[in-house]
C-alpha cells in the first residue's frame, strides 16, 4: 500500500461527457433592475436557465479563477420523489455527475476561494472521498454539521437531525482566509466586569497548552495575590512564556478569581475584539432550520406553490459572512428556490445562479424581483437593513 494512490471507483467512471463551449444569451425581456438605481449598483448578476454542466462550461472562459465562493445544494440522491428534482439517480450516475461538476467548479474558483456543499448521510462519505480526489485532501477545510430539525422525528427510533456542509478550498489553509463572525448578543452576555476594569466588560480564558512541543520555560509556577503558587495543571503547560505572563500581569490582564486564590486566567476585553471565530457545529438557533426555510418560501409564494427542500436565508448568510466580502462573486449551480442569489444580493455580493427546472421561472425570478424591489422583507432583510 506504500505510495499507492487510493481513488473512488464506480461503473462508468472513465466515461466523460463531451462539453462543447456554449454561448450565454441574454433574455432582455427577463432582465430586471430597481426603478431607482444608484451609482454603486451592480448589474452583472446572472440567472442562467440551462443544464448545470453546460452552464458551468460556458462560464469558464469569462469567470475562471474569479469566483470567491461556490455554494451548491445538489440532489441528495435519497431515492425519494421530489417535485422539483429527480433525487433518485443511480449511485454511479450521481457520482459521475458530481465529479464533472466539481472539476468545472474548481477551475472557476479564485485561488483564495472556497466551495460549500450541503449533503446528507446518504452520500456524504462518498462525496467526501470524491472531493478529496478532485480538490486534494490537503484542501479539505471542514465538515460543518447543520442542525436542520427542531425536534426528533417521531417515526424513527434513531432519527436524523442534521445535514453536512463539506467545505473545500482551492488551495491549502483556506481557513486562515475566512472572516470572523459578528459577536452575537448571546456571546456578549459572557462578558462581565467584576473588578470594575476601566476597559469595560471582559471574559476570562484559559492559557494552558499541550505539552508535546513545550519547552522548560513553559512550566513555571505562578504566584497568586494571596501568595499561593500554581504550577500548570497536570499534563498541561502554560501556553505563554513567563516573561509574557509578567507583562500581562502588569497590564491587569490576569484574573485569579474573586478570592485571589484561583489558578490564573487571562482577561479578554469585549472592546478589543473584532469578531468571533466560527466552529463546525451550527445549531438551528444560530442559522435556522427547515421549518423556517419553508415559512420563508410560503411567505413569498404561498403554501400552494411550495418548494420541497429550500435552505434558510440565515444559513446562507453565515456561509457568505465567513467566505466572502461585499463585492465578491458567489456561484450556485443548483439554484433551487434562489436562496443563494437572494441572500447574496441583500448582502452586497455579486452572484451567478444556474437552474434547469421550471422553478427557475415559478420561484427564482419572482423571488429576485421582490428582493430587488425591496418588497421581500422576510429572511435576513431586516438584519442587513435591506
TrEMBL record:
Gene Ontology MF terms in the entry:
DNA binding; N-methyltransferase activity; site-specific DNA-methyltransferase (adenine-specific) activity
PROSITE patterns per the UniProt record, alphabetical:
N6_MTASE
UniProt keyword annotation of Manganese present: no
Q: What EC number(s) are associated with this protein in UniProt? A: 2.1.1.72
Q: Which UniProt keywords apply?
A: Methyltransferase, S-adenosyl-L-methionine, Transferase
GO BP, one annotated term: methylation
Report the enzyme's class at the first EC level.
transferase
Catalytic activity, reaction form: a 2'-deoxyadenosine in DNA + S-adenosyl-L-methionine = an N(6)-methyl-2'-deoxyadenosine in DNA + S-adenosyl-L-homocysteine + H(+)
Entry similarity comment: Belongs to the N(4)/N(6)-methyltransferase family.
Per its record, how is this protein called by name? site-specific DNA-methyltransferase (adenine-specific)
